[in-house]
Amino acid sequence: MIQRKQSLFLLCALILTILTLCLPLGTLEPKALTGAVAVTEFTTLPLESAGIMGWIGRGALILSAVVCLLSIFDFKDRKRQMDETVFCIILCVLWAVVAGYRAFAVFPAVGSFTFHWSAILPVVNIILYLMARHGIKQDEELIKSMDRIR
Questions:
Q1: How many CB atoms lie within 10 A of CB 87?
Q2: Rounded to the nearest 5°, which phi and psi values hold at 40?
Q3: 141 torsion bin: left (phi>0), alpha (psi -120 to 50), beta (else)
Q4: Is the CB of residue 17 less than 8 Å from the CB of residue 67?
Q5: Which helix (H) or strand (E) holds 111?
Q6: What sign does the dihedral 73-78-80-81 (CA atoms) show?
Q7: Separation of alpha carbons 139 and 59, rounded Å
Q8: Among 21, 44, 93, 148, which is 20 to 30 Å from 121 by CA?
Q9: Residue 113: which H helix or E strand, with range?
């Protein structure tokens, strides 16, 4: 049921999550004399190859995309759909924490790091998930009020 406004919010959040996976998070300019490197979610830097933070960030975004896709088609069970949107919000916050840790603790050891505009997309996702949850909650309250009238 894509015509519901919350389904459109979830679809937009899914598209933004996929864009976040594909677009660069920022640019890393190493201290060595090599050129700048665009850091994406699938970039493996020598410093991060031993760490797990890159995998946690990728996993959070991929899992968020999968749960969001399932949530779009789970329109008949509104309570579960609300729980799925809350789970997606938690995953986006987890990604933001991991990205912040990588940008401010891991990358400065290698060189200077600058964010790109695409780093803000998960924050927009959180807003879209909150709007979708609000719409789902309104639908649930409408259904409950209709049941009381009958």
A1: 16
A2: -110, 180
A3: alpha
A4: no
A5: strand 111-115
A6: positive
A7: 31
A8: 44
A9: strand 111-115
Structure tokens at 138: 């309104």
SS in 3 state form for 78-146?
Answer: HHHHHHHHHHHHHHHHHHHHHHHHHHHHHHHHCEEEEECHHHHHHHHHHHHHHHHHHHHHHHHHHHHHH
For 47, the token pair is 């410093």
Structure pTM?
A: 0.85
Distances from the Cα of 95 to the Cαs of 2, 56, 83, 90, 123, in angstroms? 27, 8, 18, 9, 10
Tell me which residue has tokens 């830097």.
Answer: 45
User: Average pLDDT over the chain, rounded to whole?
Assistant: 84
Structure tokens of 48? Answer: 């991060």
pLDDT the model gives residue 49: 45
Find where tokens 């991991």 sit: 98
What gap in Å lies between CA 45 and CA 108, rounded to an integer? 13
- Least confident range of 12-26, 49-63, 109-123: 49-63
Give the three-state DSSP class for 18: helix
Instruction: Answer yes or no: are the C-beta atoms of 23 and 122 closer than 8 Å.
Output: no
Q: What is the strand order of the sheet 111-115 is part of?
A: 37-39, 26-30, 111-115
